[in-house]
Design brief:
Structural class: alpha+beta
Number of helices: 4
Helix content: 25-40%
Shape: globular
Largest sheet: 5 strands, antiparallel
Low-confidence stretches: none
Oligomer: single chain
Order of helices and strands: HEEEEEHHEEH
């Protein structure tokens, strides 16, 4: 089977691969695609979906056989399987899973990983905005998570 390569400018390709993976149900509509961040290795998209049961947002990542920002540099496309295994490992640990998105599915035929969307503000920028009054608490929280 030839992989379906997703494209941020084509909701049709994303819709097709999400339907094949069982993520997009028949009654759901893919409303919007946007970049989920500037990655070096993968294509990462935020997909907003709506249907009879409400709306949701997911992160869709796809590995390419090259570095995304530098197509002339080859990269191991199987890396998505290792990332998927990492999310499975994290999901088995309550402390780690609390601060990580859940893996919704992966598909090795299309080199795809679909994750729970924690929202556009769910990145690590808060660690850079620590204040004297909360720095100890934030550092302790981060160290506890890293130790786990």
């Amino acid at each position: 089977m030839e992989p379906i390569w997703i494209d941020i400018t084509s909701t049709a390709s994303v819709r097709e691969v999400l339907a094949l993976c069982g993520i997009l149900q028949e009654d759901e509509r893919l409303n919007e695609l946007s970049s989920a961040g500037e990655g070096n290795m993968n294509i990462a998209l935020r997909a907003n979906i709506s249907g009879a049961s409400g709306s949701r947002s997911i992160i869709v990542k796809q590995a390419r056989p090259y570095v995304a920002k530098h197509r002339q540099i080859p990269a191991p496309i199987e890396r998505v399987a290792f990332e998927s295994a990492f999310y499975d490992f994290v999901d088995d640990d309550e402390v780690l899973a609390e601060r990580m998105p859940r893996r919704l599915t992966s598909n090795s035929d299309h080199f795809l990983l679909v994750l729970e969307d924690l929202g556009p503000a769910a990145d690590a920028t808060s660690w850079y905005q620590a204040t004297p009054s909360n720095i100890a608490e934030q550092v302790t929280e981060l160290l506890d998570w890293l130790c786990a």
